[in-house]
């Protein structure tokens, strides 16, 4: 069985580097290094950026309030780039003036 690096990085003949199942920790600048008996040379750097889909840290919970009472729904969103949180009523538009 290979090492962790061998399982997630695959170098193919011709110098191609493939990153399988990219993680945030894979983000960074990569350089191809050519080496032979007369020396070594580096390619120009290439940057890998790894984004994350939006996810929820906190989700809204059901509320029961009296008329004129206040309901508060907490929602925490995460991702990269940081997503914006917005609200909509499931059956359509938010109530006018609210």
Write structural notes for this entry.
The chain has 98 residues and is mainly β. It has a domain at 4-48. Helices cover 5% and strands 35% of the residues. It is built from one helix and eight strands. The model is unreliable at 1-5 (pLDDT under 50).
* Strand elements, count: 8
Q: Compute the separation of the termini in Å.
A: 60 Å
Oligomerization: single chain
Structure class: mainly beta
Number of helices: 1
Reading the helices and strands in chain order gives: HEEEEEEEE
Question: What would the average pLDDT be, to the nearest integer?
Answer: 87
Strand fraction? 25-35%
Radius of gyration: 24 Å
Instruction: Tell me the major beta sheet.
Output: 2 strands, antiparallel
Low-confidence runs of at least 5 consecutive residues: 1-5
Spatial order of the strands forming the largest sheet: 1-2
The share of residues in helices is under 10%
**Form type:** rod-shaped
Offer a few descriptive terms.
Roundabout homolog 2-like, immunoglobulin domain, rod-shaped, mainly beta, disordered N terminus, 98 residues, two-stranded antiparallel ribbon, 5% helix, single chain
């Amino acid at each position: 069985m290979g090492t962790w690096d061998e399982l997630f990085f695959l170098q193919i003949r011709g110098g191609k580097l493939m990153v399988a199942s990219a993680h945030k920790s894979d983000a960074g600048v990569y350089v191809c290094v050519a080496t032979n008996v007369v020396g070594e040379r580096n390619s120009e750097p290439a940057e890998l950026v790894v984004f994350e889909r939006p996810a929820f840290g906190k989700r809204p919970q059901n509320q029961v309030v009296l008329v004129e009472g206040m309901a508060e729904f907490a929602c925490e969103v995460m991702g990269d780039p940081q997503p914006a949180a917005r609200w909509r009523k499931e059956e359509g538009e938010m109530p006018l003036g609210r």
